[in-house]
Design brief:
The protein has 309 residues and is of the alpha/beta class. It is built from eleven helices and ten strands.
């Protein structure tokens, strides 16, 4: 890699800038994907309880033989465990799945609380998502702060937080979130959010940096032309290089060994190439991942999600 390989978070913990994303990676595929990534030099693996692949990832980490302290593992608190008394129990479940004693980075997956349930997507009697309006993310995060003292996590943060939600959290928390993990790619550059996070020393990790499955971003002429100039680099390498050059950490997802390996070979973009991608990113934003209409809540529109009083 031609970029700095790590970033020091606001609590002093050192985090790799490049990692393997595992969203939508099936359990029978993710084991080999993680082993391939670790062998290729990746040190950061990103997962989440709701991905239902923590057990296979944990086994791959164990079987890799790499000392635990050389790896950085991120997982996430799911919406059904936002109630303050359930937060540590949820972490313990992830630790057991991963066969680990601690998590390097524990994120609140979404700023939305579901009713406690054995189902990941609980429904009410009308078939709607069972939102728990009695729990605010500030209270959930307060319970996450206690995990630092337990030694079970090294850093905590959030995911899918807007500027308004981050601002609200920063005004009420004791430990500032170390990371905000959000969707970022040229169709959704999130420049204002990145600027806000940088001003408040919250590191930004880009998920879906290549777009979602079969995204047309990879076929954009601008991306293809830059790739061709760099000894027939892949469009993925171009997009990941752009993200890293913006100061973001990136977690591209793949279960294909050749892509996992090639994604890791990023490079410095020339000034005109970087600016061309910035122009592409300045067009109308297209969010590819938005469960708002399905959950019946306002997640992204810069609105604080308030509990019903």
């Amino acid at each position: 890699m031609s970029f700095k390989s790590t970033v020091t978070l606001n609590n002093g913990v050192v985090k790799p800038m490049f990692g393997l994303g595992t969203w939508q990676s099936k359990p029978n595929e993710v084991y080999n994907a993680v082993l391939t990534a670790l062998k290729a030099g990746y040190t950061h693996i990103d997962t989440a309880y709701v991905y239902r692949n923590e057990k296979e990832i944990g086994q791959a980490i164990k079987d890799s033989g790499i000392p635990r302290q050389q790896l950085f593992i991120t997982t996430k608190l799911w919406n059904t465990s936002h109630q303050p008394d359930l937060v540590e129990k949820a972490l313990d479940a992830s630790l057991a799945n991963l066969q680990l004693d601690y998590i390097d980075l524990y994120l609140m997956h979404w700023p939305v609380a579901f009713k406690p349930s054995k189902y990941n997507i609980p429904k009410d009697e009308n078939g709607n998502i069972a939102i728990d309006h009695s729990v605010h993310f500030v209270d959930t995060y307060a319970s996450m702060e206690k995990l630092i003292q337990s030694g079970k996590v090294r850093a905590i943060g959030v995911s899918n937080f807007s500027i308004r939600n981050l601002e609200h959290l920063l005004n009420h928390c004791k430990i500032p979130p170390a990371v905000n993990q959000v969707e970022i790619h040229p169709y959704l550059p999130q420049s204002d959010l990145i600027k806000y996070c940088q001003q408040h020393n919250v590191h930004v990790t880009a998920y879906s940096p290549l777009g979602s499955t079969d995204s047309p971003i990879m076929q954009e002429p601008t991306v293809l032309n830059i790739a061709k100039k760099h000894n027939n680099a892949t469009p993925a390498q171009v997009l990941l290089s752009w993200g890293l050059q913006r100061g973001l950490s990136v977690i591209p997802k793949s279960v294909t060994p050749s892509r996992i390996i090639s994604n890791f070979h990023v490079f410095k973009l020339e000034k005109d190439e970087f600016e061309a991608l910035e122009r592409l990113a300045s067009q109308e934003s297209k969010r590819l991942i938005d469960p708002s209409p399905f959950w019946g809540v306002d997640i992204y529109n810069d609105a604080i999600i308030k509990p019903k009083l």
